[in-house]
Amino acid sequence: MKKIISFFAALLCAAFVFAEARVTESCLKLLDDFFDLRMELSCLDTEKDVSVPVNRLEEFKTKRSSEINSLSREEKAVVNSLIGMERYNYLFGKPENKELLKKELKVFVDEYEAFTKDKKNEDFDSWVLTVKADLLSCYITVSTKDVMKYGLVIKEYYETACKISPDFFLSPMNLGQWYYWAPGISGGSKKKALSYCETAYKNSRKPYKKYYACIHYSQMLFENKMTDKAFEILSEADSVCPGSYWLKTIRENNEKGKSLYEYNSRKTE
């Protein structure tokens, strides 16, 4: 059980999901601004104090509340869940936060269940599917009794989202990470993981998309022993976000022979 929880927690630490699909321009603008903020916050050293990024996330949600409230039910669930999951990423490291995070995430899970229950995956666009997959991955790290209920369907959400919109950016990236973490008997494969992350890299256009795609593609290259190319791709992320503390941490671990995924795995043990 502990190994299963570590798998999903590490996946979430690595990256959480959003995708490009049939959403309104106003929603896309909100998401662009949110991910720009997320990239900016990655420049902070949060090893000892996470109050600054947590407060900045709350400020973003408060200042943009009227825009969020004007969205459709599905879009609102996507935006609120993504902000909540980023808050989770900062607070998850401390055991005393577990019950608080479980309560907060359950609100998002219940909202999703309310409008997706008894419907087929194909009835929803890729935003809804990918964020639901990521949300459930997040939730079962703090609600272990739900691992079997949700754990096996997460991959299906990612796969369906990728089929609906093959030009996705982060959906194939997270599906790639699923293949990385899954045991071989369940279909895990580092080669498939590399292939999906390469797709995400090729699909990246805006700066923050390139930033995250470069990071995860580089680390899959590193895992597949292609270290020279891995460092080359990681340098591309540097050009997008100079001074990133996250990149500094990744590079330090790479120099010790450890990938980002090994680092995240140790953080969740």
List keywords for this structure.
single chain; 269 residues; mainly alpha; 71% helix
Notes on the protein architecture:
By secondary structure, this protein is mainly alpha-helical. The chain has 15 helices and no strands. It has helices at residues 2-14, 25-41, 51-63, 65-69, 73-91, 98-116, 126-139, 147-150, 154-164, 170-181, 190-203, 207-223, 227-240, 245-255, 260-267. Helix 5 (73-91) packs antiparallel against helix 6 (98-116) and helix 5 (73-91) runs parallel beside helix 7 (126-139). The longest helix has 19 residues, at 73-91. The chain is globular, with a radius of gyration of 17 Å. Residues 14-21 have low confidence and may be disordered.
Helix content: over 70%
Biggest sheet record: none
The count of helical stretches stands at 15
Cα end-to-end separation: 12 Å
Reading the helices and strands in chain order gives: HHHHHHHHHHHHHHH
Oligomer kind? single chain
- Overall geometry comes to globular
Radius of gyration: 17 Å
Q: Please report which band the strand proportion falls in: under 5%, 5-15%, 15-25%, 25-35%, 35-45% or over 45%.
A: under 5%
- Structural class comes to mainly alpha
Mean pLDDT: 89
The total beta strand count reads 0
Task: Write a concise synopsis of the structure shown.
With 269 residues, the chain is mainly α.
